[in-house]
TrEMBL record:
Alphabetic keyword roster: Membrane, Transmembrane, Transmembrane helix
Organism: Herbiconiux ginsengi
Name used for this protein in its record: Transglutaminase-like superfamily protein
Coiled coil: none
PANTHER family: PROTEIN-GLUTAMINE GAMMA-GLUTAMYLTRANSFERASE (PTHR42736)
């Protein structure tokens, strides 16, 4: 080796074949800082002290592994093994702390979550509301990212001829935080600037072959770029940040479930009217417990917008509902203020919609189904509505944390409607809105009035109607809130209906007056309720209108009239009563096209019988199909072994020459001996193998096969059949001497398959 080459080598690895400690220390320090700075981009995803501890420990340990591998020249597989052991030992206490024994030792359940979430947690991060904190095992993706990046980054920096390229590893961590993060970044200018400065510092100390002038120029370009970036950021408004979660389809679509409002009258009629549906502790008398808010009307039902409706988008959340909760009354994110809690125990309530109070910021489940319910929690910030795909049922319980000082809890009486102004453009009016809405709007809310006065006039006009939910002793009023039913309400004399119809009519009329509106459904805590647990019954269900205002965001408006007797003169006044018009479907553009009839809602007294039989059959078929699929997957390895053995037997018995087929019978017997773990000695003759396998019958079979194989003429077909019959008898003898479980294991054993080589085996047996 030349002197210069020797000098270069010792300069980089030291006299004892080790890399200089100073170089390792500098690289470790630089990449520790680079990786931690890049990890700061992940802060908006977690926002917890547990994340800070995870990042510090993981990056430090990963840098230590990479530095040790460089110092003592570990082979790559040893570095990989050390990284894998660190993943197993530190993964549970750092990323799944809830399942760590004493907070330090991994448990089998924690390791299972670690392994599963390492593969699947990435998508979960894109479909859950931020921040996630230390919720479940969702810290595993960042743990794996930081561990791999720290080990790989310092290893590339110290053990490759181009250490500058190692900067790409922490840069990918930085990009990952941006991609998986939310719409608001964490100090992007500071993080980017610090990362760039440290990266340039590494270029200076990494001894790369770059001329000094070029290096200075590069540093100058970076510095100038930072100055320009800061100036542009300060001078120009920040654009909307596009992240990966914006392109991921959310797994919850409210349209997959019936409209909550369509089941309103089921609560107000027996048997639910007197049944306890919820028991709440901590709620004030008169407070609204919101089941769901609905923002879309198609002329048939008022429902929650589908997955394509950005104003009704549901995201999977941990127990924290995120900082973007709009609340019942505010269209803007709430911040600050105190919080309070309401405990809810579920009774005769069965729904995916989770009743909450005020401006909910967290929902924590208890009881035997707590884990399943917590894992299936979804939240729409725009609607302040909580859903759970597992569904609430009798015996479930949860705690709702709400932000205080929400106008919605103060009731509609706390707001002067005449002082309100619209907070935005109303929903687009369409043909689904009945004509009577425009007529009543012109009557109750003339265009010459202010928006607030128009809204107050609409409420006053609706309050002139009468409340009738077809309860005992009440005047009949039809259920439903389709266009025909709202037309009937607004044109009948007197107006008869319940919360369901008045709330929808109020929303449609408010939109005609310029206010964005929606319908909310839930329960009202009974007046005079005690401070302890309070029973909420079905008869406490209610629906109301909410309008969006410039002053207070979303404001609840109760358009339902107070209960009062219906005058007999009004009921007898048929001259002014207007029958609901027939709903006529629009004419088809093409006369040959069939016209679909408009859906008609059914009366309470004539409920349509659902096709439960077909639904039951379909569910049974689905369960059976899934069960068969799972069973097939579980049995697939064993069925494959049996199929391969059967194919081998058929091939030996039917393919090749007559001598080869005769020898195949012996091969089947030898394979069975291998499968029962009694293989004959290697390279033994058939006679020697026969003594090892069994008794005299095996020896006679071996001699007979030798005679058929080495005879001057090919054996006849009947001789081959007799040889196979004798070989099968020997196989049965081998199996018959063992228990049932041992026989099953022998049939499923793969020992003989590992020694089977098809035609080569046949030629060897013939020889």
């Amino acid at each position: 080796m030349s002197g210069s080459a020797r000098e270069t080598r010792t300069g980089r690895t030291g006299r004892a074949g080790r890399m200089p400690a100073g170089r390792i220390l500098v690289a470790a320090l630089v990449f520790e800082v680079l990786t931690l700075v890049a990890a700061a981009a992940w802060w908006p995803i977690y926002e917890s002290a547990a994340f800070v501890l995870l990042a510090l420990v993981t990056v430090t340990v990963g840098i230590a592994i990479g530095a040790a591998g460089a110092r003592w020249s570990w082979p790559s597989h040893l570095v990989l093994l050390a990284t894998a052991l660190t993943w197993l030992l530190l993964g549970v206490p750092l990323a799944v702390p809830a399942k760590a024994l004493g907070g330090l030792l991994p448990t089998p359940a924690g390791l299972a979550d670690l392994v599963v979430t390492t593969a699947s947690g990435w998508r979960q991060l894109l479909t859950i509301e931020l921040p996630v904190g230390d919720y479940q095992a969702l810290s595993v993706p960042v743990f794996v990212t930081l561990l791999v990046a720290s080990v790989l980054g310092v290893s590339l920096a110290l053990r490759t001829p181009r250490p500058a390229f190692a900067i790409a590893v922490p840069a990918l961590v930085l990009i990952g935080g941006i991609v998986f993060g939310g719409a608001v970044a964490f100090a992007p200018i500071a993080v980017g600037a610090l990362f760039a400065v440290v990266a340039v510092a590494w270029l200076v100390v990494s001894r790369i072959r770059v001329p000094g002038r070029a290096l200075a120029a590069a540093a100058g370009v970076v510095a100038a770029g930072l100055v320009v970036a800061v100036a542009v950021t300060v001078a120009l408004p920040a654009p909307d940040r596009v992240v990966a979660r914006d392109a991921v389809e959310q797994p919850f679509d409210a349209r997959d479930y019936p409209s909550p409002l369509s089941g309103f009258r089921a609560f107000t009629k027996q048997p639910l009217a007197d049944a306890v549906v919820l028991t709440v502790t901590g709620a004030e008398p008169g407070e609204k417990i919101v089941m769901a808010r609905m923002n879309d009307y198609d002329g048939v039902v008022y429902n929650i917008g589908g997955a394509g409706d950005g104003s009704a988008l549901f995201s999977r959340v941990p127990e924290r509902l995120g900082g973007a909760a709009s609340g019942a009354s505010s269209g803007e994110p709430a911040s600050g203020g105190s919080t309070s809690t309401v405990e809810v125990r579920v009774g005769r309530y069965d729904s995916v919609w989770v009743p909450t109070t005020g401006d909910p910021v967290a929902v924590t489940f208890g009881g035997k189904n707590a884990d399943a319910l917590q894992n299936a929690l979804y939240f729409s910030p725009a609607l302040a509505t909580v859903a759970d795909t597992v569904g609430l049922g009798d015996g479930d319980s949860y705690t709702v944390t709400t932000r205080d000082a929400s106008p919605s809890t103060g009731g509609p009486a706390s707001v002067d409607l005449t002082e309100l102004t619209p907070g935005g453009a109303p929903s687009v009016q369409n043909s689904a809105v009945p004509d009577a809405v425009a007529v009543r709007s012109a009557e109750w809310a003339p265009a010459s009035d202010s928006p607030g006065e128009r809204l107050a006039g609409i409420v006053e006009g609706l309050h002139a109607g009468y409340l009738s939910g077809t309860g005992d002793g009440e005047v009949f009023s039809r259920s439903g809130h389709g266009a025909d039913r709202i037309e009937e309400l607004l044109t009948a004399s007197p107006m008869l209906g319940d919360d369901e119809q008045y709330a929808v009519a109020g929303a449609l009329l408010a939109e005609s007056a310029g206010f964005p509106a929606r319908v909310a459904m839930g329960f009202t805590v009974p007046a005079g309720a005690a401070s302890g647990p309070v029973d909420i019954r079905g008869q406490d269900a209610g629906a109301w209108t909410e309008v969006y205002t410039a002053e207070s965001g979303w404001v609840p408006v109760d358009a339902t009239p107070e209960p009062r007797p219906i005058p007999d003169t009004a009921l007898d006044d048929s001259s002014t009563a207007v029958q609901p018009p027939d709903v006529v479907p629009p004419a088809a553009d093409d006369l040959d096209d069939p016209v679909e009839a408009a859906p008609v809602q059914q009366d309470d007294d004539e409920p349509g019988a659902p096709d439960d039989v077909l639904g039951t059959v379909l569910r049974i078929a689905a369960v059976a199909g899934v069960s068969l699929a799972v069973l097939a997957i579980l049995l697939a390895p064993f069925l494959i072994v049996l199929a391969l053995k059967r194919r081998r037997r058929i091939r030996r018995r039917t393919e090749g020459s007559a001598r080869a087929r005769a020898a195949g019978g012996w091969a089947e017997l030898v394979d069975m001996a291998r499968d029962v773990a009694e293989p004959p000695p290697a390279n033994a003759t058939r006679r020697e193998a026969a003594h090892s396998i069994g008794g005299d019958s095996a020896v006679l079979l071996a001699e007979r096969i030798d005679g058929a194989v080495y005879a001057p003429t090919d054996p006849a077909e009947h001789e081959i059949e007799e040889i196979w019959a004798a070989a099968d008898a020997e196989r049965r003898r081998l199996l018959g001497s063992r228990g049932r479980f041992e026989r099953l294991l022998a049939r499923l054993s793969t020992r003989s398959l590992r020694t089977y080589h098809g035609r080569e085996e046949k030629r060897r047996d013939i020889r």
